[in-house]
Amino acid sequence: MTYLNKLLGAAALLGITAFPATAETLRFSSFEPPVAHVTKEILTPWAEDVSAASNGELTIQMFPGGSLGRNPAQQLQMVEDGVADIAWVIPGYSPGRFQESTVAELPFLIPSSTVGSPAMWKMYEDGHFKGDFNKLKMLGIFVSYPNSIASTAPVEAPEDMKGMNVRAPGPTMLSAVEALGAVPVGGITGPTVAESISRGLIGATFTQWGAIETFRMGDVISHFNTAPLGATPMLVVMNRAKYDSLSDEAKAAIDKFSGAAFSERFGKSFDDNIAEARDELLAQGNITVSEPDEAQTQAWRDAVAIATEQWIEQNENGQAIYDAFTTAIEEEAARVN
């Protein structure tokens, strides 16, 4: 009997594995700072839960703060190239890649992330989101709380935006900007918004309280109009080939915490953070909030209605997708309320 066989035999008698398998390590990229809410309170705990559920088959290692790639627009490509195995992706930075999801950017449609995120997953599950959605392993599909107008000058009514350079985080929201008579400015990612405002490149941005806090926009804006002008679609995606290469136990751990469960988890946490960020920012006394009354709200609706009409016309099956999403939102709102 060889020395190796003796070792194996002894290990068998002791009921242990002589050569334990090494856990598969997956790299999860986030462009956010490690202390930012989504990364710290949603993505990292999700990774920990999946790792723990895999019974040693899997370890998901977070790479926050752009340590694998700083540009938010690079995250999708990093997953496709295998630089990252998993990433948090903003589809608006890759126009045309996840076109159906831009329905969530339409104004006055999404009431909250709590309602909108599970509705987004249902759209995917029911086959309304196709194309590039099927080229990757979808782990979660979400939307932000509705974006409103953060600006350096008062914005009370739609006409106040005429001629103003305005940034939005997605192509459909940029259509709403144009409908308001403002100058749409694309290509500015969340981390560079504050600098763009301070340099005078833009005078306003479509955003929400969490992003204002995370990306320090509160230092450069002074006004916030709460009209809900479209939410930001977001994804957590995985390299499909990498997922397919995993053991059944590792896949089961990922699947357990993904899909509808991930969307529900994301939505509630995101909205909770919006409320906290709003209170903290307003306590500083530097931002004046304008909340449109019923008449003003109707004026905003009328001013941006063309953005919805154009989206339906310009997208294949646009009306069917819009109708299905409206129904999904109504059903989810009834469920959570």
Tell me what the CATH architecture of the largest domain is.
3-Layer(aba) Sandwich
Q: Compute the number of structural domains.
A: 2
CATH topology annotation of the largest domain = D-Maltodextrin-Binding Protein, domain 2
CATH class of the largest domain: Alpha Beta
* Helix content range: 40-55%
Rg of Cα set: 22 Å
- Helix- and strand-based class? alpha/beta
Please, how many helices? 12
Number of strands: 11
The side-by-side strand order for the widest beta sheet comes to 7-6-8-5-9-11
Largest sheet: 6 strands, mixed
Unreliable stretches covering 5 or more consecutive residues: 1-20
Distance between the termini: 69 Å
Mean pLDDT, as a whole number? 92
**Overall outline:** globular
Order of secondary-structure elements: HEHEHEHEEEHEHEHEEHHHEHH
Write up this protein.
- By secondary structure, the chain is α/β, with parallel strands linked by helices.
- The chain has 2 domains: 155 residues, D-Maltodextrin-Binding Protein, domain 2, CATH 3.40.190.170; 135 residues, Bacterial extracellular solute-binding protein, family 7 (D-Maltodextrin-Binding Protein, domain 2, 3-Layer(aba) Sandwich), CATH 3.40.190.
- Helix content is 44%, strand content 15%.
- It contains 12 helices and 11 strands.
- A 6-stranded mixed β-sheet has the order 7-6-8-5-9-11.
- The longest helix is centred in the C-terminal third of the chain and has 24 residues.
- The chain is globular and about 60 Å long.
- The N and C termini lie far apart (69 Å).
- The N terminus is likely disordered.
